[in-house]
Specification:
This protein has five helices and five strands, in the order βαβαβααβαβ. With about 160 residues, the chain is α/β, with parallel strands linked by helices. The chain has a single domain, classed as Rossmann fold, CATH 3.40.50.720. Helix 1 links the parallel strand 1 and strand 2. The protein starts with a strand and ends in an 11-residue tail after the last strand.
Length: about 160
């Protein structure tokens, strides 16, 4: 299978590359590849992937609060570009999102069809990114995770 992994230098991206090593992989990340630049679409389309695992994002919640414009540019505009690349190449998209799109006050487990109630800049940017994925693509998966951990990961 031909797989693009955005954010390949991050914790999740590295774990995915290790796990999927038998597939044909194209890892994309800064500084060589910038998903906020519309030209990034052609790199993905040129690889002709079967699937794009979109793990790239601005995930530092505190930094998102301090720099909301950067969070929106990376998490929303960047995801928009990746979704367009998926649409143009016919690839399915696995979009890595967050449980923070929900405010946690529902009093029961959340379902994928529950309406997001994001409170932070980070959560709003990820909820908006999900909107683009659902709107632009017919073949997609949205994975909402609360926390990632891996062997060798640095904890702060």
């Amino acid at each position: 299978m031909r797989i693009v992994i955005t954010g390949c230098k991050g914790q999740l991206g590295q774990a995915l590359q290790h796990t999927l090593a038998k597939d044909q992989l194209l890892g994309l990340d800064l500084p060589e590849w910038d998903m906020t630049d519309p030209a990034c679409v052609q790199t993905v389309v040129g690889f002709q992937p079967d699937v794009v695992i979109h793990a790239a994002a601005m995930t530092n919640v505190d930094a998102c609060e301090r720099k909301p414009q950067a969070a929106f540019q990376v998490n929303i505009l960047g995801t928009h570009h990746v979704a367009l690349a998926c649409e143009q190449s016919g690839a399915a998209m696995v979009h890595v999102s967050t449980n923070e799109v929900f405010d946690g006050t529902l009093g029961r487990p959340y379902y994928e069809w529950d309406i997001p109630e994001p409170k932070s800049v980070y959560a709003r940017s990820k909820a908006a990114a999900e909107f683009y994925v659902r709107t632009l693509l017919s073949r997609f998966y949205i994975v909402r995770t609360a926390w990632l951990y891996a062997r060798g990961a640095i904890t702060l």
